[in-house]
Amino acid sequence: MGTRDGIVHEDRDYSDSESDGVEDFPSAMMALLDKHRPSRMPFFRRLASLPLRVVSDPDFLGEIHLVYQAAMHATRAAVYYLPHLDSPALRKRKLQIFIDDDGLAGGDTHHYQLTRAFRNIGANIRLSDEEFGSPEELCRRLDPETAHFVRLAQRLYSRSLGPWCAVEVMSVDWMRALAEAFSVHFPQFIHEPYFEDCFSHHVEERHAEEALAVTKMVLRQRPELLAETMRDAKMMAEALDGVWNNLDRIVEKARRRAGGFERRGLMLIVNRVMTRPWPFPTEVVGNRSI
After folding, report:
1. Distance of alpha carbon 4 from its chain centroid, rounded?
2. Model pTM greater than 0.70?
3. Domain boundaries in the chain?
4. Which CATH number is associated with domain 24-274?
5. With contact defined as beta carbons under 8 Å apart, do 9 and 221 qualify?
6. Helices 203-221 and 162-183: angle between axes, nearest 10 degrees
7. Per residue of the chain (290 residues), what is the pLDDT tens digit?
């Protein structure tokens, strides 16, 4: 028995297929997640193309904030329950990720930063920051689709490291897509600390590399976890697709509602014009009008 990278390794023989699977884990994970790349989803494109009068509605912004913040909160809270990372060395590495999310300078957190970013563009914030608590309490305040994601994140994160890898690998893609879509309407949005700090310091890329590296270390010790790890990563990626689809429904609902208001407004104008009394034409004969 030996110790490497903070993990106690048993002396055991692995089959070639087990060994190959573990060594190929990072590339297999990246290939799996590329099929679920968030920026490919219609939500981001349709958000960018919304009319400003629609996207600047405080209630619309508040609804987007609630769904997105709830999904992000679910993963930030669930990461505290990751399995297999109990040795002192791995706890230190896990702690750094906690600090990047919840231990920012001046007592700041990614959660607080995100709320400020939305409040700064006029969002009507539906839940205060501290109302994002336990999954079950939060789910009572959410739509069914978002509540499903919150519950699933809690369950999957505590079961294997695959969901953690999925979220960390894909997060920079959806953060950039979201920042760019909103910045079409609110140019300052991409410069909010929630985005700019992560982009300038490559925080999400570092987390992705760390998640893949640490998970590979665990799988080298316990290759029998590989299938479960990949399966749970796929479930998490599919659940994230559901989050973007849910947000897309909010965008399309807002677009249709605005279109309905415009049509009703046009009909009111037409009705007023049609019911307005019109002067009868007069015919002039000589110097007299008849």
Report:
1. 35
2. yes
3. 24-274
4. 1.20.910.10
5. yes
6. 170
7. 444 444 444 444 445 556 678 999 999 999 999 999 999 999 999 999 999 999 999 999 999 999 999 999 999 999 999 999 999 999 999 899 899 889 999 999 999 999 999 999 999 999 999 999 999 999 999 999 999 999 999 999 999 999 999 999 999 999 999 999 999 999 999 999 999 999 999 999 999 999 999 999 999 999 999 999 999 999 999 999 999 999 999 999 999 998 855 545 444 444 565 556 655 555 555 555 55
